[in-house]
Structure formats: C-alpha cells, structure tokens
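tool=predict chain=A
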Amino acid sequence: MEANPRSTGRLPAAFLTPGSSSFMDFLGDHSPDLLPGKRVLPPLQGAVEAPHGTTIVATTFPGGVVLAGDRRATMGNMIAQRDIEKVFPADEYSAVGIAGTAGLAVEMVKLFQLELEHFEKVEGVQLSLEGKANRLSTMIRSNLGMAMQGLAVVPLFAGYDIDREKGRIFSYDVTGGRSEEHGYAATGSGSIFARGAMKKLYREDLTEQQATTLVIQALYDAADDDSATGGPDVARRIYPIVTVITDEGYRRLTEAETSEIARSILEGRLTQPDGPRAALL
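tool=predict ok
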C-alpha cells in the first residue's frame, strides 16, 4: 500500500476493514508482495551463496524450557559472521531459534513476532502455545519455493505452556511439518552431535542451572565436530545465547552468566577433552 501524498491523514481503508486476526492474512489480502513467500526469484544457476546459521538446541526441565544457539554464521567454507544472534523472543512466553539462510530466517522471526502481537491486539488474548507452533508451521510452508532453491529456514520453537504448566519444544522441516520433541531437541548442521551429547546427559529432574549447562555442553560438542558451529570464543568474549522460559516469562541469560558457565566447561575440558560422561548402567 503506497502512501498518498494528498491524504488527509486518515488510514487507508484496508486498516479500517474488519478481518482476520492473522497479520499474514492481512498482508496476503492487501499487499501480498510484502510476504517473503510471495517474492519471485530470478532464474538461478547453481547454489546460492548466502550466510547460514547453525546450531540450535533446547531442553526442558521441571518448570520451564531452555533454548540456546551458537554464534557462528557460515557461507560455504568461510565464516561469514562470528557473533550472529540466532535466538529471539517470540512473545512473553516463547522463543524461536533459527537455522538455515540467516537473512530470511531473521525476517521470518520478525514477521512471526508481529503475527503474535497482532493476534493478541485483535483478539484480546494470547494465542495458545500450540497455536503459536501452528502459525510458525504455516510461515515455514509459505517459504517452500525458496527452500527448494536452497534458501531454507528450519527453526526450533520453544515456550512455556501456561495451560499445561510446563515447557514444550517444537521442531520443523522445510515443508512446515511440525513435531513436538520431548526432553530435548536440536536443529542445524551440528544438531546430530548436539543431540548425541544431550541424549547421554539429559535427565527429567534437571534444575534450571543444570539445563543451561547442558545446552552449552551440547553446543561445545557440536562445535568440536562440526566446522559450521562456533564454540565459546573467550578471546573475543563471544558466548552462546541462552534463554530460559518459565511461568515468569522469557529471560535471556546475561553475558556474565553465560561466560561463567562457558568458562567452567572449558576448564573441565582441559582434563576431559570429550566432556562429561554418563554413568554406565
């Protein structure tokens, strides 16, 4: 919708017409060209070189959920950025971590945040956690055309379910397929190594402190075997982004909190390079 230089200051009719509580539906009806999935890409030859983000991990604990991500973005075999942010609050009780094409992923997160805020303002209530997960699934599916050309976005969504009074994790594929994960989850190029670490260290009775330590241990193991995942960078003071979501809402750990955990892990790895080991049964 273009601005009218002769406007009297009134909003365009589109903004005054009752409609869906979905901001994406609003854009689809009035300005579909603004939706990422509606853009037409020029003919391409070969793979598109764009910064990609990896690796996102999450784990639940009694009373909440932890979502974390490393800070490295790669472009081919090069490090495109060392301190990219991949974990964002979706609203007061949920967060989303991005893996895949960084530019599109950040744009999708911003649109998702606006979608949830628009729903709350129109309906007067927050969307349920299940509803939020479904909305994100729809957004990923709308990007399928770009995903088929190599510009895929595969997020990890986590939040505190007020109705069920517990933390929940949802993973996705490039087609928008949604799966609820139980206990822990990972996505991105280093996910196979991070998941292996969490599989051996996860327990259902983790404390919040233990859960935050667990995700940083998992990211360290991912960085140890996956070149696209960045580990804690003490020299540059670049540490993973760690967020905790409980019945009190979303909270991002401060740099001091994250660095303290990361440094304790690095110190432990001096004597145990492969990290802590689970007890044999």
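The helical segments are 13-16, 23-30, 102-123, 129-142, 144-147, 191-201, 208-225, 255-269. The first helix runs from residue 13 to 16.
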